[in-house]
Amino acid sequence: DRVTVFAAASLKTALDEAAAGFEAETGHEVVLSFAGSSVLARQIGLGAPADLFVSANEDWMDSLADGGHIVETSRRDLLSNRLVLVGPSGQKPGDMARALAGNTGRVAMALVDAVPAGIYGKAALTELGLWNLVAPRVAQTDNVRAALALVATGTAPLGIVYATDALAEPQVSVIAIFPDDSHPPIRYPAALISGRDTEAARDLLNYLSDTEAQGVFARHGFLPVGD
Amino acid sequence: MKLAVALHQPLGALALDVAFTAPPGVTVLFGRSGSGKTTVVNAVAGLLKPARGRIALGEHVLQDSDRGIWLPAHRRRLGYVFQDARLFPHLSVHQNLLYGRRFAPRGAQPEPEARVIEMLGIGPLLDRRPGALSGGERQRVALGRALLSAPRAILADEPLAALDEARKAEILPYFERLRDEVAIPILYVSHSAAEVARLATTVVVLQDGRVIRQGTTEDVLSDPSVTPLGARAAGAILSARVIAHHHDGLTELDAGGARLLLPRTLHPIGTPLRLRIAAQEVIVSRARPEGLSALNILPGTVEQIRSGDGPGALVSIRTKAGTVLARITRRSAAALALSEGVDCHAVIKSVAIAPEDIGR
Amino acid sequence: MKLAVALHQPLGALALDVAFTAPPGVTVLFGRSGSGKTTVVNAVAGLLKPARGRIALGEHVLQDSDRGIWLPAHRRRLGYVFQDARLFPHLSVHQNLLYGRRFAPRGAQPEPEARVIEMLGIGPLLDRRPGALSGGERQRVALGRALLSAPRAILADEPLAALDEARKAEILPYFERLRDEVAIPILYVSHSAAEVARLATTVVVLQDGRVIRQGTTEDVLSDPSVTPLGARAAGAILSARVIAHHHDGLTELDAGGARLLLPRTLHPIGTPLRLRIAAQEVIVSRARPEGLSALNILPGTVEQIRSGDGPGALVSIRTKAGTVLARITRRSAAALALSEGVDCHAVIKSVAIAPEDIGR
Amino acid sequence: MAVLGPEEWQAVALSLKVSTWATVLSLPLAVLAAHALARWRFPGRALLNGLVHLPLIMPPVVTGYVLLIVFGPAGPLGRALQSIGVVLAFNWTGAALAAAVMGFPLMVRAIRLSIEAVDPRLEQAAATLGASRMWVFLTVTLPLILPGLVAGAILGFAKAMGEFGATITFVSNIPGQTQTIPSAIYAFLQVPGGETAAARLVALSIALALGALLLSETVARRAARRVGGQ
Amino acid sequence: MAVLGPEEWQAVALSLKVSTWATVLSLPLAVLAAHALARWRFPGRALLNGLVHLPLIMPPVVTGYVLLIVFGPAGPLGRALQSIGVVLAFNWTGAALAAAVMGFPLMVRAIRLSIEAVDPRLEQAAATLGASRMWVFLTVTLPLILPGLVAGAILGFAKAMGEFGATITFVSNIPGQTQTIPSAIYAFLQVPGGETAAARLVALSIALALGALLLSETVARRAARRVGGQ
Ligand SMILES: Nc1ncnc2c1ncn2[C@@H]1O[C@H](COP(=O)(O)OP(=O)(O)OP(=O)(O)O)[C@@H](O)[C@H]1O
Ligand SMILES: Nc1ncnc2c1ncn2[C@@H]1O[C@H](COP(=O)(O)OP(=O)(O)OP(=O)(O)O)[C@@H](O)[C@H]1O
Ligand code: MOO
Ligand SMILES: [Mg+2]
Ligand SMILES: [Mg+2]
């Protein structure tokens, strides 16, 4: 059978690998569609044929739940992640506030009101009292990977992305890690879509919560939930 | 079947206001540039909707503004030959010719294709594209295309105006054959007196949107008061018949018992011809002149002398061949003491009868 | 200053291969459609780059393929008057007229603007757009535009061909004035014998891309062996002078001592005129004819008789007024026993001298 | 060019299918709209003109969103179509619709210009020969605008090959189903190190579109020559 | 239409500025390219034609990405420009560049068609009157193509007003600096409940672009009448 998964852009590399493992093990076919969680949630709300949705934050999953679009019972938090401040590769680790204040260049972020990575980032900066300093310099992109690309190409000297993104992109270096308590916990909730909860989709969801897949995610830098 | 036209249409500064009837044969609409000829023809064709009017072809009403009747162009079944041919560039000559056929009503009897192609001499062109035709060939094809659409009348708006003399001479005979062989009215716009003389059975003279004269060709063209074309257009039409071709390249004609010689024509013996003798080419003599190079000397009687403001006078001379017009100076008329009833001779050079003035 | 042209250029089936010289005055390039006239003019103008050639205006070399010289059109300073006017539609008449001025070199002395406008009678048109001009007005403006660019020569490619007779008559006098008042060579393409007669000082006859005859207008037009236009174009040019205007509307001319009468012209007494007498309008008589309506009877001697395949013969008659050509039938020539040296009379109707055949 | 992976081939095949259908199906409508804009005088002409141009003016994402709202499973037209078995949203058919809508103004403009260049006197001549409006259009106007038609169609095709914003919004980016070349490129650009794969696809899509463009110029020139005579 | 917030007004003002500059600056280049394509025969003509069309064919995101690589602070041209004080990345100037690039093919096509419609015999006439190639172009060709030029410019302007993919990729989405109307619409669409604000902006941007379009048709018609005579 075929399972169609809509997943947050930040999961791209890792989920590709995990899904391949599932396919090899079960013989099911997995079709993956990645984009910003916001775009995906909206499309699912309008009837997109996804069987399984993995969001990068709780809010978008909540909004689908409010519309009755997901199978509430299947919902579970799959992964966690951390938020980091990155610069071009070779940049030395340092103090977050000093790095942000010491550089007048742009700070690349995903859309701060819409895309999870941006929402987390804005929350963290606010918590750290840095938002007012940074806000005028933020360059927003339509998803977190686009923000990563801005730093990787040298366009922006700073960027706020997930730790997993920073790990995947050799052109960037982590300057500082945002304290876990500076933002709401990063969660990747997953749920089956109402009316499409097939056996295969359920199997995949279970597989992704299981040790083998979790190992794959860990290798890509994701953290288990509850960490 | 005749075409009856009555129109009223304001046209810029001009108000077009015409009424005339075109019997079978060629009716030439004649008049200066801007006198409204094209507008009339377009109204008849249905390409233009005149403010008021009644246009009927026999019983068949094409427009009657009083009764709210107005047929669109494609339902009028009139074959329109435009000045600029307007062949379809994407179709071969043959496809152009057949274009109208599919729209002809089931009952219609178009001219047989083979006959039209033969009559117009366009057989060798059938596979060519219009782009590769000469101007004369193009107009012949346009004429054929109109004929093959099974029209109930033919409209032709200066079909020869864009052509040089050689091309004109090439096409005029086809219109003559059309007039003589196809029994539908032909409305033909022209401002060439030679064309009128060769083709017209009826002439309608337009001036500033009004019909100022309407009648047979002979009447209208020999009427010196009709000068839409200036005095130089005046001339008489003679009917004649070929009686011999001579060895020295001359053709002999009989015109009402009088003999005329002109440069050889290709018409076989017995062919009836119409000749236009331009008034300014005719010399008048009281006595029969001797020892002149001019070969045609027609004895006759002065019928009328008209003179206007200029130095010229127009003399009508009744001869056996018909009435001949001569444009001479007033001084000569006085010197020769010409007056009505006087006997005289009309002297006409053979070579002065231009090839385009000889028709069937 | 004269324009010397020598060109070689393959042209489709034709190979253009001409050499001629145009002295000041009007040189008419004369020949059938397709003989290469436009190609020659375009090569002179620099709109076309002939394969080989040398074109020079006085000392000024425009092209010399041997020395690798080729000036682009905009550096040749030749005023080109096109058949289709080609006025700039986005500029007013006045702006059109001034267009070339800004490109004229500092030293150049263009005709004074006021003089050109007056000469061409286009003063009232200055603020109009070309779209609102008649064909005749348009050509006058085009001529003015060319003149005001301070050209070293004028090129005109059938500038009157697209016009009707009335418009032609309107413009020809301007070219005459140009010829008489502006001292630069004018290369003029035409296939109208009347235009040639009125304008040309030199005629170059082209046929199939070659110059077949070149000489003064009188020589070329009265040479019956030059028939690019057919026998009907043959005619003689007479030089005459206005000596009186008569009350009955006739104008009297003196031509080498002979007197000629023609319908009144507007030229003042003393004006020198050139008349073209078409050969086919002339009647020949051995004895002096009496009692004819024709007013002009010139005694003379037969100089030459040429006849071809057709029924006609071309007789040159030497008269006091100059050589007159008469086209008569071979039959008449025989009947009158015409041969070289025989005395005879040329009979010419006054009204047969067409207004467009009278020029200065 | 390196060999493409199976997923990339899928994208290429899908893009070709989507663009072809988009072009073929919208062409008649484009001809109709172009004809109306070029030749008819009717109230609402300016409005029609604006409507036709809308997709050119609106951000593609908005166009896609509008399509989603109208043709989505919950949309008014979407539900009607679904009841007769036609599913557009999140389907390749929807990608074709999005591509067609986005390419429409370009097609109409090209065709309109070529219609305006047709000599109305030829159409009059056809009418005098008995052809009704419809027949005049089919037998005279249409053959004469062929070059413009081809140019317009290929331009629309090229645009369809590159359409992204409306497509990804309306039908999402599902490999093998709605992932066209541009969506695939977008996906690759999201992956660090995906530039090479993206560049491969970019090169391929450019080659395809340029090929089409070149073809269009050739065909248009040939058709123009054919119409011009000889 | 409800009143817009200050951020939305900023987006509108910015979009107008960006589109105007994009149009004004790319117009001369578009005329040049159109002239070359319409009138000159040179090797590489097909290549130039393809290059001009590229932005039409490539997904806008890719175009933006290419711009980023070439004109970004680390890009070859970007560094050169920066050294003379021109900053494109994250600047409204970069948005103008992206809009200009995306609208370029549309402009060129419109202008090219109008150049092809200019009678070369008028240009020849100007040459015989002493005008060099350059002057012929300035005094004859240019005035005659004015209608097409205006149409092309306004089409480019309309396209610029709607450009999104290349813009957000190249210059990101910075309110007041690079957040054009389309970027603002996109941002609104991403936020739950943002549809109303987005719809407001969509309506405004459509009104602006349609106004421009209407203007272009009027201006073009008037210019055509002026050139046609009377
Ligand atoms: N659509 C129009 N609006 C205003 N005036 C017009 C229109 N069409 C023609 N005219 C004018 O009506 C008059 C008659 O024009 P028409 O074309 O019928 O003349 P014509 O006799 O055919 O002339 P020609 O011999 O030059 O072809 C002219 O003065 C012309 O300028
Ligand atoms: N570009 C060309 N390629 C091939 N043949 C050409 C070209 N231009 C002209 N010709 C041919 O060269 C010949 C001379 O043409 P040209 O236009 O010079 O004649 P013309 O004497 O001016 O004729 P017309 O009196 O009809 O204007 C014609 O046979 C024409 O078909
Ligand atoms: O992975 Mo996201 O939805 O771009 O923050
Ligand atoms: Mg007319
Ligand atoms: Mg010529």
Automatic annotation (TrEMBL), chains B, C:
Q: What is this protein called?
A: Molybdate transport system ATP-binding protein
Mark the transmembrane ranges. Answer: none
* Species this chain originates from: Ruegeria marina
Alphabetical GO CC annotations of the entry are: membrane
The entry lists its GO molecular-function terms as: ABC-type transporter activity; ATP binding; ATP hydrolysis activity; molybdate ion transmembrane transporter activity
Q: Which residues form the Mop domain?
A: 291-357
* Pfam families, per database record: ABC_tran (PF00005), TOBE (PF03459)
**Record-linked Gene3D superfamilies:** 2.40.50.100, P-loop containing nucleotide triphosphate hydrolases
Task: List, for all copies, the residue spans of the domain called ABC transporter.
Answer: 1-233
For this UniProt record, give its keywords in alphabetical order, as a comma-separated list: ATP-binding, Cell inner membrane, Cell membrane, Membrane, Molybdenum, Nucleotide-binding, Translocase, Transport
InterPro entries referenced in this protein's UniProt entry, alphabetically: AAA+_ATPase, ABC_transporter-like_ATP-bd, ABC_transporter-like_CS, Mo/tungstate-bd_C_term_dom, ModC_ABC_ATP-bd, Molybdenum_import_ModC, Mop_domain, P-loop_NTPase
From TrEMBL, chains D, E:
Stored Pfam families: BPD_transp_1 (PF00528)
Kindly report the protein's main subcellular placement as a broad class. membrane
PROSITE patterns reported in the protein's UniProt record: ABC_TM1
Q: CDD domains annotated for this entry?
A: TM_PBP2 (cd06261)
Query: Where found in the cell?
Result: Cell inner membrane; Cell membrane
InterPro entries documented for this protein: MetI-like, MetI-like_sf, ModB_ABC
Residue stretches making up the ABC transmembrane type-1 domain: 12-214
- Membrane topology label: Multi-pass membrane protein
Q: Where are its TM segments located?
A: 20-38, 50-71, 83-104, 135-158, 197-216
Say if the entry is tagged with keyword ATP-binding. no
> What protein name is recorded for this chain?
Molybdenum transport system permease
Q: Which UniProt keywords apply?
A: Cell inner membrane, Cell membrane, Membrane, Molybdenum, Transmembrane, Transmembrane helix, Transport
**Protein family per UniProt:** Belongs to the binding-protein-dependent transport system permease family. CysTW subfamily.
Q: Name one GO cellular component term.
A: plasma membrane
Function of the molecule = Part of the binding-protein-dependent transport system for molybdenum; probably responsible for the translocation of the substrate across the membrane.
Q: Name one GO molecular function term.
A: molybdate ion transmembrane transporter activity
